[in-house]
Specification:
Number of strands: 11
Oligomer: single chain
Number of domains: 1
CATH topology: FomD barrel-like fold
CATH class: Mainly Beta
CATH superfamily: FomD-like
Length: 192
């Protein structure tokens, strides 16, 4: 199981970036929201889902990430350099937390859900979850929790009750992340 950090400080592909983080408490959402903006990179990052190949990281791209308090998933909305959504990426996780420097993190439980802007949904990395269990990297309890969380998220998506699609579009287009008290995080400052 890998611990992943919102500031992606060790992502060597990216040569210039900005990371901001904010704790939000509202009726619609409670938890951390981060914005990772890419200014320069060595190579664009491309991903293929089904018959579709997408560029998900390039100059001018921005990743708006939600760490819902008490949830076993983290949602990343990936926007291109024109501000159009590329995809939503949902990481199933065991735990979430925050570093002393104010950077949100999660312990990745391998399973991922990708939702494209055309509504197509892909459950990813089931093989990695199975292998992690076989090799003893996770417990049966972790495995079952990952599968159940994925089922719950997929159910919410299929029944149009997963709020993060519309929320992320509104937040990104309304410049939510640049409104006070959104502060630079990680090496740029500490969250309140």
């Amino acid at each position: 199981m890998k611990r992943k950090f919102g500031d992606r400080a060790n992502w060597r592909r990216i040569t210039s970036r900005q990371f901001k983080s904010r704790y939000v408490e509202s009726e619609a959402f409670t938890g951390y929201v981060t914005l990772y903006t890419i200014y320069a990179l060595r190579d664009p990052l491309w991903k293929t889902y089904g018959d579709h190949t997408f560029r998900i990281a390039d100059k001018g791209y921005a990743w708006l990430q939600y760490y819902p308090k008490g949830s076993r998933y983290v949602v990343t909305a990936m926007f291109d350099d024109r501000g159009d959504i590329v995809e939503w990426y949902i990481d199933i996780c065991k735990n979430q937390g925050i570093t002393d420097q104010g950077v949100p993190w999660f312990d990745d439980l391998y399973l991922d859900i990708v939702v494209l802007d055309n509504g197509e949904v892909f459950l990813m990395d089931q093989d990695e979850l199975d292998e992690a269990l076989t090799r003893g990297h996770i417990s049966v309890k972790d495995y079952d929790m990952a599968m159940e969380t994925a089922r719950e998220v997929l159910h919410a998506i299929h029944h149009r009750k997963f709020p993060y699609f519309q929320m992320s579009l509104e937040h990104f287009r309304n410049d939510f992340v640049n409104a006070d008290p959104f502060r630079p995080g990680g090496q740029y400052g500490k969250l309140e």
